Backbone:
């Protein structure tokens, strides 16, 4: 009996980096599930690429639950790769921007990962798309101390992300030690999450691999026309996360090499 090709799921994939990641995975021989919030655009992109489509809004817990149920029903064999790519980069900086950005970029990743975790096959890869913009030195010394990857729990990390939003909404984020960037702060959370997941799953008998990746500044609708990189190079940097050493303690990479954060 011929073995089935491995199965990958990509979030936020109707355009830009997510779409290109789907194309490159397809060309590597994966079966691919392209997910997107906009069903019409998502179906069109999946049709053009010759891959499967499932609707997903990472900011809606019920949508994540529906996706998990559909993957379980359609693919009981499970997933080999999940690329958590969906994200936003909004103009301006205020309480609403902070809330939307953190909910999509950090909590959206957390919802998808925790929902799909039971469906991952042995040796599966979780690739969280982060950014080098999310540097820990943007935080005050006190906040950096709270971001102790040896002892921090996922619940405590989530509480920090909620605290950032609350501090921005209250107009006290500067005095509380936060930077004036919602995107950067949300990506600090994503990179930290990859480290915590890798630590927490170290004893999982499935030997799952978790890594955060930086695609660089890419010329996409979200990245803008002045980006330094093509979408092909950015997507390749994301997928280099499939090939990094599983046992390395560092869990943030760009172009397959450890990146600073």
Residues:
């Amino acid at each position: 009996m011929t073995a089935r090709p491995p199965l990958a799921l990509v979030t936020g994939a109707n355009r830009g980096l997510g779409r290109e990641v789907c194309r490159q995975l397809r060309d590597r021989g994966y079966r691919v599930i392209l997910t997107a919030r906009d069903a019409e655009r998502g179906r069109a992109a999946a049709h053009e690429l010759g891959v499967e489509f499932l609707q997903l809004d990472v900011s809606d817990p019920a949508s994540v639950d529906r996706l998990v149920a559909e993957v379980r029903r359609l693919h009981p064999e499970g997933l080999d790769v999940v690329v958590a790519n969906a994200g936003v980069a909004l103009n301006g900086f205020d309480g609403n921007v902070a809330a939307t950005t953190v909910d999509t970029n950090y909590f959206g990743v957390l919802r998808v990962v925790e929902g799909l975790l039971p469906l991952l096959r042995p040796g599966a890869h979780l690739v969280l798309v982060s950014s080098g913009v999310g540097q820990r030195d943007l935080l005050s010394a006190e906040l950096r101390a709270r971001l102790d990857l040896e002892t921090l729990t996922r619940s405590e990390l989530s509480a920090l992300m909620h605290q950032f939003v609350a501090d921005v909404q209250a107009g006290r984020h500067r005095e509380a030690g936060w930077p004036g960037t919602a995107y950067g702060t949300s990506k600090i959370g994503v990179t930290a999450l990859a480290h915590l997941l890798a630590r927490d799953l170290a004893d999982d008998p499935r030997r799952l691999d978790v890594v955060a990746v930086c695609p660089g500044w890419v010329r996409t609708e979200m990245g803008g026309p002045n980006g330094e990189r093509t979408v092909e190079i950015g997507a390749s940097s994301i997928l280099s996360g499939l090939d990094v050493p599983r046992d390395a303690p560092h869990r943030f990479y760009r172009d397959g090499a450890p990146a600073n954060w």
Notes: The two ends are 46 Å apart (CA to CA).
